[in-house]
Amino acid sequence: MRTDKRRRSTKEDSITLASPPTIRFLLAHPAHLVACGFGSGLSPRAPGTVGTLFAWASFPLLRPWMSDLEFLGLLFLCFVGGVLAVHKTGADLGVVDHGSIVWDEIVPFWAVLLFCPTPGLWQAIAFGLFRFFDIVKPQPARYFDEKVKNGFGVMCDDLVAAGYTLLVLAILRFVLE
Fold it and tell me: What is the DSSP string of 16-37?
């Protein structure tokens, strides 16, 4: 069955078009575990939001162990590995951008948090902005979402959402401080 992403407004809706994977599927291959955000993507409701919350919760556990440059290196590796993991998992699920695939939310939101001015309110604003841009998909995010049907396209549309989020945060910080 071919799913037409133009029929729905968000990735969140794709979970209704294709059955959610099971824990067994999650553990069947390391790519599935990564792409589904270590289980956060199995949420029956709003898996993209849950995946972003997972990123927010896991960030303070990862960040103290690395310098900015080391964390950027980790993000790069997670992005490249994510392209492969997301592609494999999408192929195995039969839907390129299945709703349970949330690694594409996790890695870009880690990048947002790395550049976020300070914890607390700024991170909450960043969360809201990131979810907004991920759902709305302004260009070129929409291009990647609609035209690049592989792991790279899935990862890139959220990377664009992260870029828009950081741009708005920078403008807000300039205006408010």
Answer: HHSPPPPHHHHHH-HHHHHHTG
Local confidence band at 5 (pLDDT 50, 70, 90 cut-offs): very low
- Token pair, residue 64, equals 């103290």
User: Where exactly are the structural domains of the chain?
Assistant: 9-176
Q: Determine the straight-line distance between the first and last CA of the chain, rounded to whole angstroms.
A: 52
Give yes or no for a cis peptide into 20 (omega within 30° of 0): no
For residue 72, the 8-state DSSP code is H
Enclosing H/E stretch for 55: helix 47-62
Q: Let me know if 40 is exposed, middle or buried by CB neighbors in 10 A (0-12, 13-18, 19+).
A: buried
Nearest to 11 by CA among 114, 122, 135: 135
Give the type of residue at 151: G
Q: What is the pTM assigned to this prediction?
A: 0.85
Amino acid at residue number 63: R
Whole-number Å distance between alpha carbons of 129 and 117: 14
